[in-house]
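# nightly structure sweep
# worker-07 picked up a monomer target from the shared queue
# config: single-sequence mode, recycle default, output format = structure tokens
# input follows
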Amino acid sequence: MTLRESTSWSRDGITFGDTNARASMRAHAFGPLEVLVPVIGQGTWQMHDRGAGAARATAALRLGIELGMTHIDTAEMYGDGRAEEIVADAIEAIPRERLFIVSKVLPQNATYRGTLRACEQSLRRLRSDYLDVYLLHWPSSHPIAETMRAMEELVDAGKIRALGVSNFDVDEMEGARQALRRHPLACNQVLYHLRERAVEHAVLPYCREHRIAHVAYSPLGQGDFPNARSAQGQVLERVAGRLGATARQVALAFLTRLDGMFAIPKAEAPEHVRENAGAGDVRLAATDVAEIDKVFPLPRADRPLPMN
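# output follows
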């Protein structure tokens, strides 16, 4: 197994990390936004948020940023707000404009006034004047028109730069888009990994048709990544060997293989952070994609959209 390690990334003339490194982070346009965002970002769901664990999580996020993973995802739900505070500690010494920060409002808070209030609270925890994108965490019992109206007001006020959703199926995305009046739907963040490809039936095509960023959370699964001795694992190892990468880097490359596709793996160990960042330089050939596609078949099209 070879670890393809990313140690530098440049944007706007600014270079992060070792300038002698051979790796460079791929970037895609983020939905309708006129900004290129690294295809591999950093998730914060279930990060350790107390004591020594929080210090390790903060250091991991900082390392990830140095390696080019400047897209950081969090939410008011994660650790009851502690994840946002850890992100704030990690980005404290970094100019805000070099980062792409995303957070989410809980569905139970997603009334018009509740969304405005939740955003203000997230901004205070993040110690930031604005979010790059603000998402509704999953479909709410509150009218989507109320939530979208609040989010558009937040864009107008400069509190957020774009708005989006998470865990939305096609009908739900269409409802959100129809409720918008001034700003486009920029993102849908969904459960997506090699063993969970349900979104490829309809959600991913819809996002690509309407220029909505498609962001994969839990992109390496949840403790069930294919064993190297399994049939699926052997294929990933074979492709990885050809590319000088690891199986996990190949998996992340597959999930970000098309324009507008992003992944936000979580990592707290430095070696895992480096491995994730290295995936940003892995480019799959059509034959690689076909080989992976063959051993990770799509599920039935009539399944409900999965989520954690």
